[in-house]
Amino acid sequence: MVMMDLVNSVMNLFVPPASLVVMACAWPALYFINTCEWLYKSFHGEDMEDKVVIVTGASSGIGEQIAYEYAKRRVNLVLVARRENRLRGISERARVLGAKHVMIVGADVVKEDECRRFINQVVSYYGRLDHLVNTVSLGHTFYLEEVVDNSVFPHLLDINFWGNVYPTYVALPHLHETNGRIVVNAAVETWLPLPRMSLYGAAKAALINFYDTLRFELNDEIGITIATHGWIGASEVTGGKFMLEEGAEMQRREEREVLKVNGSGSPLEDYAKRIVSGACRGDHYVKCPSWYDIFLIYRYFAPGVLNWTLRQLLASHGARRTSLMGTGRPLLLESGTSSPRSTDSGSSSPRRPEPSSSPWSSSPPRKILAGPSGGPVTFSSSRSPVHPVQMHKLE
After folding, report:
1. Which of 183, 110, 136, 152 has the alpha carbon at shortest distance from 395?
2. Catalytic one among 70, 166, 200, 271?
3. What's the rounded Cα separation, in Å, for the pair 163 and 3?
4. What is the CA radius of gyration of the chain?
5. How many CB atoms are located within 10 Å of the residue 319 CB?
6. What is the pLDDT of residue 117?
7. Degrees, nearest 5: CA angle 300-305-308
8. Residue 135, pLDDT score
């Protein structure tokens, strides 16, 4: 026991700096080898024509754009989402872009029996399955201490984790037959923690660890491509405002939005194109932007520097602001109020909403929510106030 402690002490002292020196010396050679491999795979990538691709969460956002990219490669496309009516228009556009055949399926990927139903339906119709693309995602923008109704917790984990695992579990036997591929949409928050995204980041981290482990278990008989993107900026569709759809009170964190890199937007279509190109090349990881990897080195070798830097960057945005979406607290204000995040003068924390005996029971003709840029998002009284228990999965 004493000897083992001594060995670990010596290793702790010498291995980290030695590893950094070795990496620095080997980096040019590794970079050259990786570049040559990338070029070779780019010219000898997988021919997707007539192959069968399932895209879950295809009714909007990144799932929709990935479907279009696969359509350009003349695949047989299967679009899966809860909102089947949204899939009809997307399927028509996919056909115009070149898809050989498009099937739409309404299903909830959080339920194993529904996953088994649509996987079996696809295999029965086409006779095979080549790519399974999991894109379902749901984020939040609240601080954990703001939550008074924790019923949102299992919803977040169900969608961001089990909504990917169940389709994978059911599809594995069929992917083995074609040496197929699984594509997963993750996020940089898995290794770069950001405030107001604690549960989302935890679920995505679990997802990446699950698929990294599965890759070893499958021994590369089935390929796995994990895609991670940078920080999400303003929505291309909503102009930076939050959308409330189908009664859901959580921020819709679909990758319908523009990816932000130092204030300059990298369009969603480009991210989708990188994912599909990387999957067809057989890449293990697709990162947009790839320079975010440097944060991993800081996280493991200089975590104090990374934490200090992030705090300074986040502090530049001023006083702490939060969204009460999904916390169980009242979200709605009377018409004429410019923002629900008003603060007392001289205070750096938001004023907490006054308690109400029944915040969900009635609503004035018009309500206001705060968008990510502080601007209002309005909706009419025809939509009832929302409650965490009523949260729907957003695809």
Report:
1. 136
2. 200
3. 46
4. 23
5. 11
6. 95
7. 125
8. 92
Tell me the two tokens of residue 99.
Answer: 């898809």
pLDDT along the chain (395 residues), means of 10: 86 86 89 88 88 93 92 96 90 94 94 95 96 90 83 88 96 96 88 82 92 93 90 41 35 38 55 92 87 79 82 62 52 40 40 40 36 36 36 41
Q: Specify the DSSP class assigned to residue 384.
A: P
What pTM was estimated for this model as a whole? 0.71
> DSSP string covering 47-66, please?
--TT-EEEEETTTSHHHHHH
Cα 258 → chain centroid: 13
In the prediction, which pLDDT does 309 show?
80
pLDDT (0 to 100) of residue 45: 85
The strand order across the sheet containing 285-288 reads 101-106, 76-81, 52-56, 131-134, 181-185, 223-229, 285-288
CB 324 within 8 A of CB 330: yes
Find residue 223's DSSP bridge partners.
181
Using DSSP's 3-state secondary structure scheme, residue 288 falls into strand
96 and 70 Cβ atoms separated by less than 8 Å: no
Domains of the chain and CATH, by start: 46-300 (3.40.50.720)
DSSP string, 214-279: HHHHHTTSSEEEEEEE--EEEETTTTT-----TT--S----TTEEEEETTEEEPHHHHHHHHHHHH
Cβ atoms of residues 203 and 182 within 8 Å: no
Residues whose CB falls within 8 Å of the CB of residue 230, separated by 6 or more in sequence, listed in order = 188, 259, 260, 261, 266, 288, 289, 292
Q: Which two tokens stand for residue 107?
A: 């299903």
Question: Cα separation of 253 and 111, whole Å?
Answer: 21
Distance CA 368, CA 331 (A): 8
Burial (CB count <10 Å: 0-12, 13-18, 19+), residue 339? middle
Known active-site residue 166: no
Q: In Å, what is the CA distance from 151 to each residue of 55, 145, 167, 290?
A: 28, 14, 24, 36
Tell me the one-letter amino acid at 387: H
386/390 Cα distance (integer angstroms): 7
Q: What's the pLDDT at 96?
A: 95
